Amino acid sequence: MNDQGLYYADYLQLDRLLQAQQPESGKRGGAEAHDEMLFIITHQAYELWFKQILHELKSVLDLFASVPMDERKLGIIVARLERVVAIQKLINQQIGILETMTPLDFLDFRNELIPASGFQSAQFREIELRLGLRARLAPTAFSRLAADDRDRLQRIARETSLFEHIDAWLARTPFLEFEGFNFWESYRQAVAVMLETDRRSILGNPLLSSAETAQQLAELESTRRTFDRLFEPDGFRMLREQGVFQLSQASVLSALFINLYRDEPILHLPFRLLTHLMDLDEQLTAWRSGHALMVQRMLGGKIGTGGTSGHDYLRRTVEKKRIFADLYNLSTFLIPRSALPVLPSRLRRHLGFSFTGEPRV
């Protein structure tokens, strides 16, 4: 601070920030590896963006945690998750910058990094926990972290995650039962009509051979059984055991309702929220996949600096660590708009924006 006000470099603490790149190569008498500076800056940028993601996530979790939740804050939640997704897209592009470094360039300083590894990013582990990955983390997930980081993450693991907040929020969705209208039963009847129409279409198709007809009828019966599992408690339990859903049955029903009737004005924001959760999961999966490919490009089959099996380990974690895959799996149970149960007129008014006051003269 000086007499002329706040100075740009002071506000950003550039003196500290620009001195925070200290390559390990060259410290013991050898030549400094040129590309180590790129490696350090890229990973420091990752950590800065992780900090911003956590800043947004913690605010979203606080808004969900308020009892009762103020639904007027839903627009803020949607906007902040949209920002997280935008940051993720930028982070994913940074892998391309790292890939301007060749495998031989990396080998110039790789041994200097051991045993440091991206697995020791406490901020990334915190993001995973706050999103809801706790149940799918290996018992050794925090083993390579310093004691203070490990203790802090274990405390965070006991807090309510975004996935858990979403599960509870969806389960509270109103309108599924309204003045004699029951969405669950109406939807089930619509599915039965749709499947029967498909059956008649198959039987009436003169272009199909008897074998093709039998095959398509068998596939239709399989589809029917899948829908039946959605409706029955034991069947839904089977879907959970198969990993199709982690959400509760009530939450899946609500998410289905929001997706099917998303054109109703009051459901616009809930639909955008679910869409951003899918975007977030997609970008996180893309980051894991891109990271695995980059490691294979740099190391081939070598062990990673953190002692794991490098590319093979990362590749195996890509699908296993999906957080909001439930929302993707809902597509199995969507039906065409033309087959949707018609909502009662009073319910549609509740789902819309209406003005009932007298017009001014």
Q: Could you describe the 3D structure shown?
A:
The chain has 361 residues and is mainly α. The protein has a single domain, classed as Methane Monooxygenase Hydroxylase, Chain G, domain 1 (Up-down Bundle), CATH 1.20.58.480. It is 61% helix and 1% strand. It contains 17 helices and two strands. The protein has helices at residues 8-11, 14-17, 36-65, 74-98, 103-107, 110-113, 122-131, 147-156, 162-171, 183-203, 210-231, 233-241, 249-260, 268-299, 311-320, 325-329, 345-351; strands at residues 177-178, 181-182. The protein has a two-stranded antiparallel sheet. A hairpin with a 2-residue loop joins β1 (177-178) and β2. α3 runs antiparallel to α4 (74-98), α3 runs parallel beside α9 (162-171) and α7 packs parallel to α8 (147-156). It is globular and about 80 Å long. Residues 355-361 have low confidence and may be disordered.
Number of helices: 17
Strand content: under 5%
Which CATH C-level class is it? Mainly Alpha
CATH structural fold name: Methane Monooxygenase Hydroxylase, Chain G, domain 1
Q: What is the distance, rounded to the nearest whole angstrom, between the alpha carbons of the first and last residues?
A: 59 Å
User: Which runs of at least 5 residues are low in confidence (pLDDT < 50)?
Assistant: 355-361
